[in-house]
Structure formats: structure tokens, C-alpha cells
Design brief:
Elements (H helix, E strand, L loop, with lengths): L5 H12 L11 E7 L4 E5 L12 H11 L6 E8 L9 H9 L4 E5 L5 E5 H4 L13
Parallel strand pairs: 3-4
Antiparallel strand pairs: 1-2, 1-3, 4-5
The chain binds tetrahydrodeoxyuridine.
Tetrahydrodeoxyuridine binds next to helix 2.
Organism: Corynebacterium testudinoris
InterPro entries: APOBEC/CMP_deaminase_Zn-bd, CMP_dCMP_dom, Cyt/Deoxycyt_deaminase, Cyt_deam_tetra, Cytidine_deaminase-like
Cofactor: Zn(2+)
């Protein structure tokens, strides 16, 4: 079980961003999330010469969480872009985070201070697994 402050989560995301493979965009991103059982998972963006095959930091963190056998639920994710603050999750990542019941997103403001937003404010009226119940 990991008890991390928002500042510590952002630091973990920043560390992950330093491992990004982003030779095409030169826009390294890191994500750090805490799963429902309190484990920390991180990810960075991984790009490709076929540009469209780039994978975002957030989705890499989520797939690492699932591959590790974690419960499919996360309480919070922090996102850091080394070249831009704040670095909000893209639309595709919001949808993937939605799947796993993300409750909160933490980014940095331009001064490096934590900003926390409820997930519903980031992706209101979202489509999720509940929509398929009883189909
Ligand atoms: N990127 C992320 O890793 N996460 C986001 O939410 C936004 C964009 C990456 C993808 C690409 O490698 C680079 O940032 C520029 O778009």
C-alpha cells in the first residue's frame, strides 16, 4: 500500500517522463497512478516512426497496472509534461481512465504547484462499462 501526496505522485510522474521515448515530438510525458489496492504504477509516452502508433504515458501506466494483476480500478493519476504545464490527458486517455473508474486527475500549474480535478469535470456525461449492463 502506497500513501502518496499529490506532490509525490507528480514527482513520480516527472521521473517517468524522463524515461519517455519521444524523438518525434520532443514532448516527454509521464504518468503515475495509484490503483485501488494502493500500488503505484507509472508510464511514459512511447513514440514510433509510424507516428500514429505513439502510446501516451497515461495509457502505458494503465496497461502496466492491468498486466501486473492489479484490481481494475484507480483512485488518481498524476500527469507531467516536461515541456508544458499543465499537461492534461488527451481524449483517448480520458476514455481509458474512465474505464477504470479514475476519480481524480492531478497536473501541475505553470508554477509547478499541484492542481487536482475531479474526473467527472474532465470527462462529463461519459460512456462507460455501466452503459453496457444488461445489454
Ligand atoms: N501524450 C501523452 O503521453 N499523454 C497525453 O495525454 C497527451 C499526449 C504524448 C503523445 C505524444 O508522444 C506526445 O505527447 C505529443 O503529442
Amino acid at each position: 500500500m502506497t500513501q502518496l501526496s499529490d506532490t509525490e505522485l507528480l514527482q513520480a510522474a516527472r521521473d517517468a517522463a524522463t524515461r519517455a521515448y519521444a524523438p518525434y515530438s520532443s514532448f516527454p510525458v509521464g504518468a503515475a497512478l495509484v490503483s485501488a489496492d494502493g500500488t503505484l504504477y507509472t508510464g511514459c509516452n512511447v513514440e514510433n516512426a509510424a507516428y500514429g502508433e505513439a502510446i501516451c504515458a497515461e495509457r502505458n501506466a494503465v496497461t502496466t497496472m492491468i498486466a501486473a494483476g492489479s484490481p481494475p480500478r484507480l483512485s488518481a493519476v498524476a500527469v507531467v509534461g516536461l515541456k508544458a504545464a499543465p499537461c492534461w490527458p488527451c481524449g483517448a486517455c480520458r476514455q481509458v481512465l474512465r474505464e477504470f473508474h479514475c476519480e481524480r486527475v492531478i497536473v501541475e500549474d505553470p508554477d509547478g504547484n499541484p492542481v487536482s480535478l475531479a474526473f467527472d469535470d474532465l470527462l462529463p456525461n461519459s460512456f462507460g462499462p455501466d452503459a453496457l449492463e444488461g445489454k
